[in-house]
Amino acid sequence: MIYISIIIGCILGAIIGMNTPVISYTYSSYLAIAIIAALDTVFGGITSVIKKNFDLKIFLSGFFGNAILSIALTYLGERLNVDIYLAAVVVFVGRMFTNLAIIRRYYVDKWTNKFAELSSKNKK
Amino acid sequence: MKGKYTMIISIGLATLILTTVMFTQFKTVEQTDITAIETMRETELRTELANWKTKYEEMEIKLTETESKIAEYQSQVSNSAESETILEKELNETDMYLGYKKLQGEGIEVVLKDNSNTAIDRWDLLSIVNELKLAGAEAISINGERIVSNTEIATVGTQFILINGNRIPAPFTVKAIGDKKYLESAITIKGGYIDEMKLYEKTVEYEVKDIVEIPAYSGKIKFEYAEENK
Hints:
The complex is a heterodimer of chains A (124) and B (230).
Chain A: H1 2-19, H2 25-51, H3 56-80, H4 84-123
Helix pairs in contact in A: 2-3, 2-4
Chain B: H1 2-31, H2 42-98, E1 103-113, H3 122-134, E2 139-142, E3 145-146, E4 153-156, E5 160-163, E6 166-168, E7 172-177, H4 180-188, H5 193-199, E8 203-214
Antiparallel strand pairs in B: 1-7, 1-8, 2-3, 2-7, 4-5, 5-6
């Protein structure tokens, strides 16, 4: 169910995104970091769904809060002449990998269990 | 069950927003010309600016070099043009002074003729040339022979008078350019040249003219023995 909604969201988002006007290149670095933050939150959301501890408030606040915070940090870094956005990228991408690992493990376990069940059924 | 739907919808909406922004970003990155100045980041602009600055400085140095060279050439050109005109002027003046130019101007014409009693000799010619020079004559000729610095007025045998190496027969027409009043008075003064000639019964006629033409010296002034003493 959840994957169907994700796929529909992806398709609709792609169609809308294709038709939006091009934003200024100056702001695209902020947008990129916001995308990474949001991506991390989405993966985190999927993980929480799998773990069955999904909280809508946490998900939405994470989704927008992380994006806004990362944009603010990038802006601050530009002001301080320190590439803070690199730290944000490292953290978010690292968390993304962790979440992906959790998702992967869950499904690998699930499928192995299913195969084990199937094979045991066949033996019976 | 209700919580599950809100969860699904919220995740779907989040993905929707995410992919929308992502595709916008893709498009932006794809369509933006990275080399264009408007899209450059500050650091890139800074390095670019530094590059241009060094280039500009190099060019400026080159420009000043070239400008100084041009100025040099120009001064040379003007110098040579100036010196050319000066040289030409000097050459002209020297030619006039040496007698290499045809000249004209106000002056006097004196005609000395042989008569039945006496003949004109070289002393008569020498003394009139001398008198005219004293009166400020700028150019003198006798029968078309220009009197220059090394002109001789000599007698060869008894018949001919030699001027500039040429034999000159009588009558002698002495032309002089200069202040006509001075020239006239120089020879007509009481006890002067004309009186003296009359004393020796020699025929002298003179005429003051507004335009006297004097030919150029046709010979060459050469220095074989003399050299500049520095």
